[in-house]
């Protein structure tokens, strides 16, 4: 886990505001592959790739993964999409 990212604490708080028992972790390429974010239901973690730089990239990625966390089993369907747009709008 990489702890020095400036956005980590801010977006960990955002994750907890939607998913109180969850945690945000910034991960390196070895764990992320080509993904910008991952939603890990089994250990209640949202992983974001260490190469995320801008506020916009963080909002988009974190909102995407929170929407997965809130809507297990929905993939990228309309239920997921509604959550994603709501969260992204709230964070913008
Ligand atoms: Zn997704």
Give the gist of this structure.
By secondary structure, the chain is α+β, with helices and mostly antiparallel strands.
Q: Could you explain how this protein is built, in words?
A:
The chain has helices at residues 8-18, 29-32, 55-70, 78-91, and strands at 23-27, 37-40, 45-49. By secondary structure, it is of the alpha+beta class. Helix 1 packs parallel to helix 3 (55-70) and helix 3 (55-70) crosses helix 4. 49% of the residues lie in helices and 15% in strands. It is built from 4 helices and 3 strands; from the N terminus they run H-E-H-E-E-H-H. It has one domain: Zincin-like (2-Layer Sandwich). It is globular and about 30 Å long. It binds zinc ion. Zinc ion binds at residues 64, 68, 76.
Quickly list its features.
alpha+beta, 4 helices, binds zinc ion, Zincin-like, three-stranded mixed sheet, 92 residues
Q: How many strands, what sense, and barrel or not for the largest sheet?
A: 3 strands, mixed
End-to-end CA span: 26 Å
Low-confidence stretches: none
What's the tally of helices? 4
CATH T-level topology: Zincin-like
Query: Spatial order of the strands in the main sheet?
Result: 1-3-2
H/E element string?
Answer: HEHEEHH
| Level-1 CATH class name | Alpha Beta
- Return the structural class: alpha+beta
CATH superfamily: Metalloproteases ("zincins"), catalytic domain
Radius of gyration: 12 Å
Number of structurally distinct domains = 1
- Small ligands present: zinc ion
Helix content: 40-55%
| E-strand count | 3
CATH architecture: 2-Layer Sandwich
Shape: globular
């Amino acid at each position: 886990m990489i702890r020095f990212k400036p956005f980590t604490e801010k977006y960990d708080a955002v994750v907890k505001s939607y998913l109180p028992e969850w945690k945000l972790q910034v991960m390196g390429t070895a764990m992320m592959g080509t993904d910008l974010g991952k939603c890990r239901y089994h250990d209640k973690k949202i992983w974001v790739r260490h190469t995320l730089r801008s506020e916009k990239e963080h909002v988009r990625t974190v909102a995407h993964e929170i929407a997965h966390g809130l809507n297990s089993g929905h993939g990228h369907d309309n239920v997921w999409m509604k959550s994603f747009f709501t969260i992204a709008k709230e964070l913008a």
